[in-house]
Amino acid sequence: MESFIRTATEIGSMNELQLVEHYGEVSRVLRHLRPLSSNQVAERVVDLYRRHSSEVTGVMDAALRAHASDIREGKLPATCAILLAIPESYKTVAVDERRESPGALVASSTPTGRDGSPPPQAHGPTAPADPDNTGGATGSDVSIQGTEQRTRDARKGDGTLLDQKRLVSFGTAEQYLGITDRQRQKLIKSGALRVEGQGQNRKITAESLKIYLPPEIPN
Description:
By secondary structure, the protein is mainly α. The protein is built from ten helices and three strands, in the order αααααααβααββα. It folds into two domains: 1-87, no CATH class; 139-213, no CATH class.
């Protein structure tokens, strides 16, 4: 869902050339819809992409306005599409900057006594060991996590994602590296991945992706 919303948002900021370049599969139909010319087909395909983007982003914008109070009060579940529509950078930058700021105070989840010392240990039954290192997740949670990881790995190192492209979207970069949105942000911040463009037009260079993870050579 998050990728679906992000893609619709990115399409809205692309011009005709960027759309056709990014979605190379468009070229496969240009000469096969007679009696329309290639230019006419391209114009209609681009219009279809734009209408899709406008409809999706319009719905999300209306939902954000309608549920502004719910967002502020934290009433929506973390999996709500309205929250997924908010760029990850808005959720993490403030926290990262606070942690990296010299002398910044970072809240601790460990309770302390009035003098700042740790409280005495409570006597009672201890929590059961976690031999499978699942962090207390249930079987269904672990299964979902495994499925998500396999989905990310499906096209990891797939050179066709980068073929004849100088720049690719964040979503394509995540597919190629088999990583999450947050992991991609960390790689950009560390300088491992190079970004060009401004605002919603920011993209990652294919060259930096190939340097970080050379494409797999098909058998």
